[in-house]
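[job 0412] stage=fold_complex status=start
inputs:
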Amino acid sequence: MAHFPKPAEGSWTEHFKLGTEPISYADSISPEHYELERDAIFRRTWLNVGRVEQLPKIGSYFTKELDAARTSVVVVRDKEGAVRAFHNICRHRGNKLVWNDYPGEETSGVCRQFTCKYHGWRYGLDGGLTFVQQESEFFDLDKADYGLAAVRAEVWEGFIFVNLDPGDTTPLEEYMGGLGAGLAGYPFEKMTQVFKYRADVGSNWKLFIDAFTEFYHAPVLHQKQAVSEESRKLAKVGFEALAYDIEGPHGMVSSWGGMAPPKDPSMVKPIERALRSGLFGPWDRPVDVDLPAGLNPARHPAWGVDSFLFFPNFMLLVWAPNWYLTYHYWPTSYNTHIFECGLYFVPPKNARERLAQELAAVTFKEYALQDGNTLEATQTMLEAGAVKEFPLCDQEILLRHLHKVCKDYLDDHAGRTPGTPLRATAVS
Amino acid sequence: MPILPAAFADLEPYGEWSLRTERERYAKRLSSSMEELQAFYDATFPRLEDALAHLDGLDFEELPEDAERLLWLYYSVVNASFPVEVWRQARVPDSGAASIDCVVEPAV
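[job 0412] stage=fold_complex status=done
writing structure:
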């Protein structure tokens, strides 16, 4: 029996007209398909590469390896305080411009200009070429012609995005659409206490998103995390979302979360009772937040977390106790990707608050280990090809949507003239 | 030589759990037996409130070194609580060969 109301059509999936047939995972098991995704998706969409807090002052920079989009970018705060991005390549002979010891590893720092390690060419924070070693040896070289190759960079709610599509003029805010607009004003900027995790995962990038865009698995896969009576109860009840929303290529799920704090303290572990914290975060809210309209859309009193997937690979989870979580899935091949996670809290005022955050962070990691462990085997079995169709339930609507959007982007890319912008309506 | 505040002399035998990074604490947990984890937990968990009271009496921005080491020790208590309170094994069940590394964490 349903605990929370569904749309008049009887299901979220039918409400959003996504079809109810079994899906194929042919989009996750071949190098050829992945090559199409690199151009049709990762070089054609806004990609979140970081937060403004990573660029605290003029000259602050970081690099981001975007293997799926076939490039590496340097993101920097320029002299005017604006965020800019460039392809991470020296205009002289193609040496990777910014790196430290290992050209393939990301780096960050503060500088007044970028100096190429190879022949000492220098570039200002605006990308302009400012110095050429032995300039008189060159032939009619005009430095104005050899600035760094710019990449469009825009900021939404403090999140820095880049877009590698020279033909796409859709502003970031428009791309983020109604789901993004619904989050405007949330105090992300107050949550500067950061924990970050990283894992190399042996699966297609979409499989991990699939795992994290549904909570249907949670009472089962994570059953052994909880004290046993509680976990038996959870597994019996299963999972139902409070609400789902889909707009353009993006989607969100809104979930209950009665564990922060729990109704009955005996539901949780002794350490959680002692530190007043757990998977859903510290129980005591550090700041008062007027929730923007896009959070807890069902306005349910038991609301716990909203999880957004901003296409293609950026997930943002905002938790009722006023902290947030980010996931990124960066493909490195058709069956491997780098998983990155960030937990962002209001900086603790004392050791008690700090320990509550430590418990939330470590708890998150233990759950993610269970989530990640299933993926490599899933990948192997999907590649075996013995089974080709997979039924998805209504609580798996966001992954049904994700695979459909990926297909729409590939179809659109195949059909469009190079250089024309991809219309957001093409994928709704 | 003691490393913790004097009031926590009884926890000195577990001083090796006072580790600065999550990576070290997690590695220590994985390399410990259930008996060792249980003994560590049994000694430290009942002193949690005392530790919080001690630490909260200090300026969190400028914790003395011994207090900082006490805090690290309690980060380890958090890490070790999972196997002791629920799993009865050092690794989270059903996680096989999966690994996730903490690459950024707060300085304190």
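[job 0412] summary: Chain B has a mean pLDDT of 95.
[job 0412] exit 0
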